[in-house]
Amino acid sequence: MIEFALNYAWLVPLLPVLSFLTIVFLTRPWARLSSAVAIGAMLGSFLLASSLAWGVFTNPAFIEEPLHYSLRWLGMEGFTVNAGILIDPASAMMLFMVSLVALLVQIYSTGYMKGDPHYSLFFAYLSLFAASMLGLVISSNLLQMFIFWELVGLCSYLLIGFYTYKVSAREAAKKAFITTRIGDFGMLLGILFLQIQFNTLDLLELAAVIPNFAQLGVSLGLLTLIAILFFLGPVAKSGQFPLHVWLPDAMEGPTPVSALIHAATMVVAGVYLVGRMLFLFVEVPGSLTVVAFIGAFTALFAATIAVTQREIKRILAYSTVSQLGYMMLALGVGSLSASLFHLWTHAFFKALMFLAAGSVLHALHNKADVWEMGGLIRKMPITGWTFVVGGLAIAGIPPFAGFWSKDEILLVTWEYARHGHALGYLFFAFAALTAFLTAFYIWRLIFLVFFGPEKANDHVHESPLSMTLPLLVLAVLSGVAGLIGTPWTNLWSTWIHFGDAHSGEPAYLLMLLSVVLALAGIGLAFILYCKDQDKQAARSLAKKYPALYNLSYRKYYIDEAYTWFTRKIVDGGAKVIYLFDIYLVDGVVNGLAALTKGSGQGLKYLQTGKLQTYALIFFLAVLVLTVAFNLDSANALAHLGGVK
Amino acid sequence: MKQLQGCADMENSLELIAFFLLAGSLLTGALMVVTLKNLVNSVLSLIVVFFSLAGIFILLNADFLAAVQVLVYAGGVCIMLVFGVMLVQRKDMRESNPVNRRFLIAAPLTGALFLLIGLVAAKSPWVKEAGEVPENTIEHLAPILLRDYVIPFEAVAILLTVALTGVLLLVKEVKDNGRSS
Amino acid sequence: MNIDFSLLITEISLAILGLTVFTLGLILPAKSSQKGLGTFSLCGLLVILALTIASWGNQGETLGGMYLADYFTSFFKILSLTALILVILGSKNYVNSQIENHLEYYSTLIFATLGMIIMFSAGDFITLYLGLELMTISFIVLTSFRRTNGKSLEAGMKYLLLAGLSSAVLLYGLSLVYGAAGTVFIKEIAGNIAQGYFNPLLIVGLAMLIAGFGFKISAAPFHMWAPDVYEGAPTPVTAFLAVGSKAASFAVLIRVFLGAFLEMQEQWTMLIAFLAALSMLIGNLTAFAQTNIKRMLAFSSIAQAGYILVGLVAANEAGIKGVMFYSFIYVFATIGAFTVVSEVYNKTGSDDIADYAGLSQRAPLAAVVLLISMLSMAGIPPLAGFTGKYYLFITVVQDYLWLVYLGLILSMVSVYYYLRVVLVMFRDEPADPAPLKLGSTASLTLWLTLAATLFLGIYPWPLAKLANTVAIAFLAGL
Questions:
Q1: Which residues of B touch C159 (CB under 8 A)?
Q2: Looking at the partner chain, which of B124, B161, B172 has a beta carbon nearest the beta carbon of C201?
Q3: Is A333 exposed, middle or buried (0-12, 13-18, 19+ CB in 10 A)?
Q4: What was the ipTM of the complex prediction?
Q5: Is A592's CB within 8 Å of B125's CB?
Q6: Which end of chain B, C or N, has fewer beta carbons within 10 A?
Q7: From residue B12, how far is each of A221, B17, C32 by CA, in Å?
Q8: Domain boundaries, position B161
Q9: Does any domain span residue B172?
Q10: Number of compact structural domains in chain B
Q11: Distance from CA of B106 to the nearest CA of A (A)
Q12: Among candidate residues A288, A346, A357, the one with its CA nearest the CA of residue A321
């Protein structure tokens, strides 16, 4: 089985593709059958992925010598692109995590989406989404990866806009697609540059040649440019400041989709990609600092927004943005291990919290304002307690998963600072402050929604087993997933690392600090939102500092700024071009039509008039072309050795 | 002018004078085609153009081409006249070929193009490779058309078929419209 | 001088087929039996396509270099025939309901294809020009084929006048080149230029050639006719005009500019790059404001012409290869899109984008094909258009990086207006929810184009390799 899984790793993404095709073309009219097909295929993928992961993690040879096979895919004289598969511990981990979360989300969806008219289609999209991500994870080549990257974007577009009747969903889908494409554009340029400069896009080959860039005649400036361009893609995809705006809106999609996007598929793709390309970034220290700075800033920035949001999914969305910032920060300080570790634990507790939030919304019929909820834990014990587990994990209370990974990030940032990077202290401060805020806003959510007095929600009841089962599984994982990376038995960093495996002494002081910060956050939330039944203190705080409150609640007016920018600048530009078209081309014609209308032949002249305009422009172009050519031909004469 | 001098060493100035006359009438005729307000007059000045062109062909010893020019375009001009009179639904024929404001742009534009090409042509050296023109051009035509240039020849045949079917189709259209309206 | 007829097998059989269709149409009495003409042409074309593919290796030139048959022409012959077959297959419904004169319709389509083939197989300017005229006149007739539709007639009229204008300019250019280089044979021109036959008038001629061919490929600023003609012409004709005429003209452009004027490459690449940039700009930016889908596709096809011109800018093996590859995949995307447009028009009588609301519910296949075709044109991976653009733009990265930037930015912009249609199709509720039944042959066409676009996007290697071989052979044969 393990041997098979290793040799046929491409089956992992292929199975969901097949189920996508089957559902779309065959089983679409039968909802239950469609979901069974999707779940069956995903289960197959998961089993393959887990035996593959087992194979990789039991054989240390894979750490140094990744499994790599490829076939020729496209090419021309002088350059070829191979499509292939690259299996190393990092991709094996991702395969396992993505297929597991996707499987759980699909099982959850059988309950959540029950009765939806496009039930089958939803499962088809989910399968394709998972397949794209799995394909991205095992790609051995940047171009191939880019294709899956775009597919992920396309699927997210379809899924975010799944509730077609909601205007906000359509807008969100469009926003997600367009925002991420801005980043993709830069990334594609980066890929092109890499192809030109190094003549390969294969990850392993690039990893081998990029450290010797100076010998290949590539300047450091160019390499920096490539790295920054390349980084744009992950910035957009992983919701980093300033291209994070699409991510909170993406919660307009059905909740299982949000869970999938936020935990396992779309947003972590960026982190994963930067991790994969770390060999490029370490060559240009400036670019790493940029990565770290953007990561740290995003982490704090998003956390401050999450503090005041009212919609349950929006709080979680900003929390995702913030946590992704953590992961980027870890990459920026050069630790692949810590970043992917946090990615791994985050996947479980964030999927858990999203699915639990979905369960709450399901019960409350999509009333999303946390201020209108309360005391739900008595009515929905499984949802409530699993959410609490998630909350403990993200806040960083030992021994839950989030504690270990967050601690690792704090540790590597601290060490980075200690190794002479002055900015490192700033990053560390940002990260620590974020840790405090994270604990605060998540527990604010928990206290408001699950504890306190019950609001008038009579017929609230626990969700069906199909929805609670994934919650339970994820809760267990959120509890224990971090244990493979504790400072005492750090299996994680022996498997997944960049450069030397990290093996520091356990930093007890840091651990203490992080626990204190988490407890302080939880405590503050408890005082403001649980003990204080009327929430007087919280309200008066908001009243006392209206500017700060609004700044946070309105998300620093970033959306408004962008809207203004698109309205005024982009649409304005389009309008100018449109006006040009109308007035310069049509205007001449219309003016003429008005002139001749008196003769009662307006329409005919309109048409013939247009024709003459066309002919005029044609001749004008001929003239310009001839002149341009002749100006140019002066040196042509010289070039061809004069006249005969 | 250089073109003329370089092109063939004309032994007598008579031919030169003939060329100038023909070229002058050609250009004047062409200008009149565009500028005259009455369509019938325009078409008639087109005849002047065609005849002048035939004359230039004769000057170049291309007698067959000159004959074809006259024969073919005589028919063409007749048809244009008929169409001009029939299809232009104007009460007053004197305004059937109006000049509009675009003329103001078009005239300098085409003028500039003309000047440019003329200047370049005047500056250009010409490769003289003109062989002897045979006395009788017609008997050399058949092998050229039916052997050397058989593919273009056949292409022309098909082109004419297509054009004919197209014209028939459009004529049918006019009849239908006439009946329905 | 003997003619090697085996080299002319495609042309001769096309001519015979066209005439047979014509005669059959005249002989067959009842109007109903004329409906079989489409099927008959289709079968004949499939046989000819098979013959053409079978005679792939049969290369040579006949009539003393006036007529060429090499890999390059074979490639474009296959392309034109494939396009024609797909157009006829996809338009049977449309033709049955919108067009009365089947015999003229099918025979003219076949003759137009013959014209294209003669045009890009020509070894000299005379054959080239006559092939071009045969193609153009056929298209003029085809454009005005919807006899009762004012728009169609207007389009035909416009095309007639403007094509006449461009042909005149082209012919003038050809004669100037002849005058300056002393020969009409493309190969000999190259030789003469290399020997130093140089003349400023050659430059003027070259500019006029660019204008004439630029008109045919609808490159800006010679594009003005395209939106009107595309909008008015019967939709299958529009599709064939956008695909066949354009690809054939690109083939001729390569043949002439690389075949005859490679020596003067430095002079014309900059201008071609400029045209490419202008076409991309005007095509993509004007497409935004369109509400009629055919006009929008027309502007998008202007932009596509800009992308393809990029391959010509490179003027090397990779560039030729990119042009060939892109032309071929463009066939599938365009015919897919236009088949949907013609089917929708057939049922709803409208080309307005607004009337595509809820198409995904009324005709899912049509909506998916339109989506995939448009995304392919926008160059979103893993569709064929992405690979095509990649091949094109990578050729000029070194010398014309600004063109690459522009192309990338504009293809990103283009996603916006393509997505507008997609949004209408997939998000909006239809005014009339009744399912829109597609014709069986149209569905087949849609499936074929869909499969081709997906397959060539995911696994472009076979076609790319073929194009590569052809490009190498083409440059070696100069």
A1: none
A2: B124
A3: buried
A4: 0.88
A5: no
A6: C
A7: 74, 9, 70
A8: 136-181
A9: yes
A10: 2
A11: 7
A12: A346
